[in-house]
Amino acid sequence: MAAELHPRSGKLVGLSNSNRTARRNQPVQEFNHGLVLSKEPLRDRDVFTVRIDKKVNSWSGSIEIGVTTLDPALLDFPSSATGLKGGSWIVSGCSVLRDGRSVLEEYGRDLDQLAEGDRVGIQRSSRGELHLWVNGQDCGPAASGLPPKLWAVVDLYGKCTQVTVVSCEPPLPSAERETVVRDEEEEEEEEEEEEEEDAVVCGVREDAGITALMNVAAMNGVMMGDEVPELSCGHSRPDKFPNNLEPDAVLTEHQLFDVFNNAIVSFYRAEDEGGGEEEGGGGGTGGSGAPGSDLSSSRNDARSGSRGGPSSNDSGTGAGDAGNAGSTGNANSGAGGGSGAAAGGLTTNDALLFHEKCGTLIKLSNNNKTAERRRPLDEFNNGVVMTNRPLRHNEMFEIRIDKLVDKWSGSIEIGVTTHIPNNLDYPATMTNLRSGTIMMSGCGILTNGKGTRREYCEFSLDELQEGDHIGLMRKASGALHFYINGIDQGVAAAQTPGVVYGVVDLYGMAVKVTIVHNHNHSERLRRNNAIMRAMSPDVGRPRPTLTPDSDAPERLLFHANCGQKAAIISEGRTALRPHATDDFNHGVVLSSRPLRSNEVFQVRIDKMVDKWAGSIEIGVTTHNPAFLQLPSTMTNLRSGTWMMTGNGVMHNGTTILDEYGHNLDRLKAGDTVGVVRKEDSSLHFFVNGIAQGPAAWNVPPNVYAVVDLYGQAAQATIMDDMVDLPPLPEDSSEGPTAMSPGSPCSVLGASAATDLRFHHLHGTNAVITNGGRTALRQNCRSEFNDAIVISNRCLRDGELFEIIIQKMVDRWSGSIEAGVTAIRPEELEFPNTMTDIDYDTWMLSGTAIMQDGNTMRNNYGCDLDSLTSGSRIGMMRSAVGDLHYYINGVDQGIACSGLPPEVFAVIDLYGQCVQVSITSSSGPLDNSLCTSNVTEKSFPIHSPAAGVAHRLHGKHGKNVVLLGEGCQAVRVGGYAHGIVFSAKELKVDELFEVRIADVDEQWCGSLHVGLTTLPPPELPSCPLSGFSPSLPQLRAKVTWLLCGSEVRRNGVLQRQNYGRSLDRLTVGNRVGVKRCSDDTMHIFIDGEDMGPAATAVAKKVYAVLDLYGRITAVSIVSSTLPEDADGVKAPSLSSGSCSEGEEDSTPVREAAGEPCATAPTAMAFLENHGKNIQLSNQKLTAARVSSYNQGLLVTAQPLTTQQLFQFQIDRLNPSWTSSLSLGVIGHSPDRLNFPSTACCLKRSAWLLQRDSIFHNSLKICENYGPNLDTCPEGTVLGLLVDANSCLHLYVNGMDQGVAAQDIPSPCYPFIDLYGQCEQVTIIVDSIPAAGGEDDDGRCQGDMEKADVVDGIKESVCWTPPPDVSPNKSCEYQGLCSRFKDLLTLPDGYFSEDAKYNLCYCESCRKLRGDEPYYKRGEPPRDYALPFGWCCFALRIKSHCEVSNALKKWHIAYHGTSVGALRRTLDHSQLLPGTSSVFSVAPAKAEGPDGYGDPEENSAPGREVLRVRLSPTMRYSGLETFAPKVQFRDPRSHRRHQAQVGFQVCVRPGSYKAGPQQTLGHGEPLDPRFSNSEIEWVTKEQGGTLLYGLLVRVE
Asked: Does the model's pTM come out above 0.90?
């Protein structure tokens, strides 16, 4: 027969090479329509063989092959081979289908696993049987009773895109002879077969088979001179061996692979099925080549029989149990005959499928192997499916998750039920059934709808991803086990009814699943591939020994099976990445055996490269290295793995500790790292021999050590000489002196002198980090309790246990609770809150002292609910049994008495309190402890830095006298007029501090302190009699101040209950103020930082004090920073000055005026990105090509300090809601598993979304910058990390201020093309950032006064820059525009240039970077932008433009009514007779405006028209002046209220500013304008010019 293909084929197939090669066109776009048939019918015994030439990874599935009775000349080709009917047999994957229906679920090699170059053939034997041949090996009969006339069928499906016919001839004689022998063996009696097999297993055939295998390996160079592995006689022979191996024969690569593969499969089968029985030939302890050969996961799949005929594959689902496996193990590799098929094989009706009756939204497909929930975005339940028959004992029911959606919470649920599918009325969810049902939901077990086990396993079904496997098995003992990705999760229910059906609930996120039948086959193939890779001749490392040497010392070595880019040398002691400068990952190595308890595994870093980010990672895993398919990095493994990476700890790829121990990324060559699993199941890490404290608990035994030579780490060597290592804390014979003083220790039972730590036992929601020093409550915005932590040992008499509050949230009521308990941590069942305990417990909750849950005393000396971040709380049991509390080092007195001698400190992280840390003050104290001692110990008072003492400015309040060359200030009269300033502007991070020298108790009130932009040199000469009497009334410039415990800005309250109240200060207390590098103001009291009091503080500020009330005298105790102090830090964009005397911290400075930052790196997007992203334009442009999510992008290069990374929004799609988000991550993106949206990034990630900032998916700031959802096309967004590690957002070149602090270096910018945003482009030539350094090196400090006044930008022209386009997507502007259209005003009144139509809503003004106030005119005068209004520019006549009225006139506002608009526009100016109630008013006599009576010769009764205006719309926009009207939006049909007004230009000198007369407002309407000058009045006709129409809609 000719080895050719028929010219007729599928519609996408192209033939070439004389019809011997077939190629599927458009392989990336299409996965089917690739059907080809042989040119002629097959002859008996001819094997029609094709070679796979090309595959792609875009699809699942691969080549399919078979036979059909259909003539290709007359065939209407279907889309795939499984669509062939009327007599067709197709092998697909490892299943056999007849006319599209499965007849055999597990057969031969899995075709989906074949690679390019593999050969696959199909044959009809002379007995009418169908045989599959893979790489020259017969896989046995797949079907029988085939008709004589058949055409070969090949389907280029899925990944397979091109094949070539290589032959169509009978098989080689050796293979044929093997087939004949097999056929003859099938006809023998079973008893004779067993006798013959028993005689052969321990006889010559076993030895001959193994010898032949090793001869093959030696001939092909596998052994490389090493010893031949020994196999005990107890194992049965391999299924297939070439019996005619000659010494000079050389097998091909594929033949060699099959020989080894078959041998190893037989080796495992013998171990699985015969290893536990005495009759199994000694397989119980036999020579397994895998160290620690624990094959529990595969034994669940063991079957007692095999499919009829010899095969290298295990049987499918069978009825045999584990108890019979041993007795049939020796016969398993034999013929098997009919009994084998009956016991373990699958018949047509035996396959485990989904039952046809299912939930109302379920659609079944793939021969009922696949279930899918319809309308997954609309419905989340009614997706229950059950198996078509009950589960057998020890039968695995396993499914694969094919599809998930992100819309719902909750996910797949799986279990068993006694209900018969045909009789069941399916519920909406399976957990609604109240009888006969056991389900796994999340990580818990529900029986009959009620939770019986809250935390069954460490995996949660809600966190599984597409492609993960879930299985269950009912053991013969009745125990129910669940499996996740093949890992047994243990007993879920001890007793399960004998007859149960499998059930799956496609709930929430879960949409589609498929039953997996070949789990046993794929597991064996994975193991075989791992061992074959370890024995491959091209790796160049020793081969694993299959028989352990009992005489060899049990030294810890690296296992030979290691990462693709790693190698093992020095007899297994050293691991390296030979090409470390070319690749940064695939360097995972494991220990050769499991670690014993308390055995330290330690390695020394031998070599490092400086090309990559990240470094060595170390940990443990439960996976056996002989069977593990090693990932690129160990943190990608999602089961049984604990790794220390950087200074965090990850469990199964998820971070469990953020700040733990020394940062591994900072280690150098010669440093050592180690890991140990202790007897109490805790895991500890070592860095340079120093214990870092407990990192994890409940770590199972028999774990292997793991080292990941990642990034910079290129080589490491095991240090097995333990004499040089310090003893472990609990093994130390010399007590704590043998430990490093700074090394944490929280091991129970340590020496009594061990530092206090938190115990590793704690509440459910608590997490212990930082070596036992820090405790935090996870999920703090969704959980408020279950976060109790306790000290690791009892408190001694007079010993202080002190913690500091580090983080709080404002979501809950109540806060931290603290106390002591006599209950040992091991005996404590942690309740929701500690006040629930009813014995041996004393707690302080708020102001109440509680004993055993009952209040015993109210109004104790402190209130824990009033504490803030930075507050310190301490507890001490005195020698006489009294309990004392200390707040910020101050003893609050005796709380209760009669405490037992041994009590543990308890902290309940309740409500608002989220995170605390133990302070260095914790430790022994004597009973004479005083307040000052505690304060000094907790917060030592540092002496002022070397430099010139601060001075006070010569201009001050009228009641102040300066003494001591300006170092002292005394108020000599009254209680007010005591304002003083610092002599100079404060530098960044410079503390200005004074000590209170005198007080006068006859007055109330106290010192006020803060920062001001008011320059004292610009004030009138001293004394300032007309100056503000007190600091809260100082509003000439922007001033931030602390009054008592209230923070105010220009007198307006910003924050309450900030820190300690200044009203309690007395003589000797010290008060200081500092402007920090992150633009925040900090207040210091007695040297203690009270935290940030105000944000967005201007660059140039002076310290300001108000000697008010009781405080009559202060003296300066601080000094100026040395001139070179600023040289410690690199210059920053946020720096307030650029003095020439600053020194740069970089080694070389080319020129004094050049920027000091690192040279910018050319940025481009990383090839690894969200699945819906397509890159172009040399990776500078990214577009989302489908859906609304999966659009996450990361740059390939890190963001260097002071480098501005900018990109432009190219395209928006209004069909979606929301828009892009951006931020930075603090780890290499090469290891990033890209989630669907950026808000799912939970490790070292800072995200800017809408107008909020998130850190690790938790919101840390609101109302920052513009709303990113409103950014229009063309907007330029940027990110910058300054020299102080602060993150800044730039919008159209405008710095929005500090978004986040403590950004790690290096960091990588990321963008999430979400919702409306579909395309962005990186800007290569970045425009300079506002406030940054220009090309000529000019700093902000060099700007002219016209550019920056009082820290607020001023502008000569109020219009926006021409490169800032209006926000086309602003919904508010569109609403205002539709209201304007309803007014039917002629278009001729309005400007044709739409860029002057400006929206002043919150998002648009932040997007433009508008300041609230600007100056305009000659002379300049302040006016406020009309925030909340929308301005439509009016057409201006040419003669007005010539007269420069727009530049020289002032800006004001005029409120009016809708009815007066048309007449006003017709005359182009404000006229009398309008319906505005206040803007035009007649007057005949002098009023408060200062206009006198008419002159003597004027006409009697003449009206003087006075037009009232205002520089702020907060006054002109009041409803009295601009009445509201109702209207219906023509688009949304919703009712709204609208107001109108005018923005006008006013001629200077034509008006007079005065107090408002119409309304009686006492409080100022606008902080910039006092009520005495908020109303402008003019009587000159033509003195106003209409500039814009203002509209506000509510």
From this structure: no
